[in-house]
Each structure stands twice: as structure tokens, then as C-alpha cells.
Design brief:
By secondary structure, the chain is mostly helical. The protein folds into two domains: 31 residues, no CATH class; 97 residues. The protein has five helices and no strands.
Length: 135
């Protein structure tokens, strides 16, 4: 079954697409037929509306693209900020560990100076005996 191209004008008089022809390609042909049956003024209005619709759809697509790009940039900035904070936190934790170790060494030295045995100091501080003796 085929449709004669010259019959587009007569397609426009149908109220609906016959069930047999209700496939995508035939729907497109019926749309073309409807447009070809328009007067010059109606065609200009139709074209203007179609252009406005396409402009709108392109604007939406562009806005989505721009929004996605802004979101990606913002996510990268947040990630950089989180990485910088993680590095700062790690450095701070390391400083606190060193400070605590220095404090423990100071306590060990004080306990050694008052004559406490290395075994007792090891029990109190948790520091290995060989390290206590090396101080």
C-alpha cells in the first residue's frame, strides 16, 4: 500500500488517521498533509509557531547543558575543598600525635630522673623498655 504524494492536500480533510495507517511513518505523512492543506497565512503562523517551539527546545537544551557544566564545576570545587580539608585534618592529627609522643617522652625522662625503673615506666606509659633505656 502506498500514498500518492499528490494526495497530501486531500489528507488534510480526514478527521483522524485510519487504524491501518496508524504507524509512525504514516503519522508523519498525515502531519505533512495537514500542513500542505493550510492557507498561506495559516502556513506562516504554523511555521512561526514551529520556529518558536524549536527555539524554546534549543533554549531548554542549552540551559540543561550549562546547568550540568556548572554542576560539574561546583562538584569539582567542593571535592577540592574536601581534599584540602582532609589534608589539613591529617596534618593536624599528625601534629597532635607528635605532640603527644613528645609529652610521653618528657614524662619518661622525668620518671627516669627520679629513679623509677624502666619496667615500671613501660607499664605506666606503654612505651617499649628499649626505647625508655635509649632516652
Amino acid at each position: 500500500m502506498w500514498i500518492n504524494c499528490c494526495s497530501f492536500k486531500s489528507i488534510s480533510i480526514l478527521d483522524r488517521i485510519p487504524a491501518v495507517l496508524n504507524k509512525r511513518i504514516f503519522q508523519k505523512l498525515f502531519q505533512i498533509g495537514e500542513v500542505s492543506g493550510l492557507t498561506k497565512e495559516e502556513r506562516m503562523l504554523y511555521d512561526s509557531g514551529l520556529k518558536a517551539k524549536r527555539d524554546y527546545m534549543n533554549s531548554i537544551a542549552y540551559a540543561k547543558k550549562e546547568g550540568a557544566e556548572e554542576g560539574r564545576i561546583k562538584a569539582e570545587q567542593e571535592m577540592r575543598g574536601e581534599l584540602a580539608k582532609a589534608k589539613q585534618d591529617k596534618a593536624k592529627a599528625e601534629q597532635e600525635r607528635i605532640k603527644a609522643e613528645q609529652h610521653t617522652i618528657s614524662i619518661v625522662r622525668n620518671l627516669k630522673n627520679i629513679g623509677m625503673p624502666a619496667e615500671e615506666i613501660a607499664k605506666i606509659t606503654g612505651m617499649p623498655i628499649d626505647k625508655i633505656q635509649a632516652l
